Amino acid sequence: MSQLSAPLSPGGASAGPGPAAAARATALSKVYGKGEARVTALDGVTVEFARARFTAVMGPSGSGKSTLMHCLAGLEAVTSGSARVGDTELSRLNDRELTALRRDRVGFVFQGFNLLPTLTALENVVLPLRIAGRRPDPAWLDAVVATVGLAGRLGHRPAELSGGQQQRVAVARALISRPEIVFADEPTGNLDSRSGAEVLGFLRDSVRELGQTVVMVTHDPVAAAYADRVVFLADGRVVDELHAPDSGAVLDRMLRFEARDPAR
Ligand code: ADP
């Protein structure tokens, strides 16, 4: 694992991301506003997210977690530095190309599920492909549905499903296009702890069993302990990371960073 997230070897032939990186930020800065209202949300972040790994991003409120995810997903333009998905430098893409990247190469899971209420679970899962005019690969659809534990619920509408089941539909929808990377923003924030544990287990299975790549923003040390690695942000910078974390170790680091900056 450590070699997957190691920096480029000195003298490496390529200045681009190694084959193991699903996404990478290099000296990435993001500034919002001007003058008095100027906020540096990201301040020279260099981090890579290895393929087929589950990474949690943690940090105090306002530390830049969402901004990092949005810059790497092509939802926000960077101010300086670079954001890449695979080999693709996002700042070189026009709007049409960014839309295609978000549709075909990136998956999203949000706190609020964002399912369409009039569609069944199955229709919600395959919606991104339908919009793109593509058919689901039956074997992949079966694998995704089995991995997120939805078999038997595919004909239900969201209102007929529990919060945990709705989030499992949202995870399946994020995976259906076999994206290069899935970004999950507080995916268990609206769930009770048992449903949250199920969803986290399915996210982890999508990495271990289906080889997917997941980057998850969370405040919850128990959720972060499902990840292979935790990256900590504070004040728009990467300040630490843990590998194969347990929740006690995550909590210990969090308290250290929160204590450093009691104003937030
Ligand atoms: P986190 O996700 O860790 O809570 P954010 O990435 O949302 O942090 O925000 C980082 C900083 O950037 C905060 O100070 C926030 O107020 C600011 N920020 C985020 N989005 C905007 C925006 N659209 N306009 C102005 N400031 C923003």
Structure description:
With 264 residues, this protein is an alpha/beta fold. It has one domain: P-loop containing nucleotide triphosphate hydrolases (Rossmann fold), CATH 3.40.50.300. Helices cover 33% and strands 24% of the residues. It has eight helices and ten strands. It has helices at residues 65-72, 95-104, 121-131, 138-147, 163-175, 193-208, 221-224, 247-260; strands spanning 21-32, 39-50, 54-58, 80-85, 88-89, 106-109, 181-185, 214-217, 229-234, 237-243. It has a six-stranded mixed beta sheet, sandwiched between helices. Strands 2-1-4-5 form a four-stranded antiparallel beta sheet, with helices on one face. The longest helix has 16 residues, at 193-208. It is globular and about 50 Å long. Residues 1-18 have low confidence and may be disordered. Residues 32-33, 39, 41, 59, 61-67 line the site of adenosine-5'-diphosphate (ADP). Residues 32-33, 39, 41, 59, 61-67 line the site of adenosine-5'-diphosphate.
State the helicity in percent bands: 25-40%
- Ranges where pLDDT stays below 50 over 5 or more residues in a row are 1-18
Strand order of the largest sheet: 6-7-8-3-9-10
Class based on secondary structure composition and strand pairing: alpha/beta
What would CATH call the class? Alpha Beta
The number of domains is: 1
Unique ligands: adenosine-5'-diphosphate
CATH topology (fold) name: Rossmann fold
**Kindly, what is the distance between the CA atoms of the first and last residues, rounded to a whole number of angstroms?**
33 Å
As a percent range, the share of strand residues is 15-25%
The largest pleated sheet is described as: 6 strands, mixed
Question: Measured on Cα atoms, how large is the radius of gyration?
Answer: 18 Å
Average of the residue pLDDT scores: 88
Number of strands: 10
CATH 4th-level superfamily: P-loop containing nucleotide triphosphate hydrolases
**Count of helical regions:** 8
Order of helices and strands: EEEHEEHEHHHEHEHEEH
Just name the CATH architecture. Answer: 3-Layer(aba) Sandwich
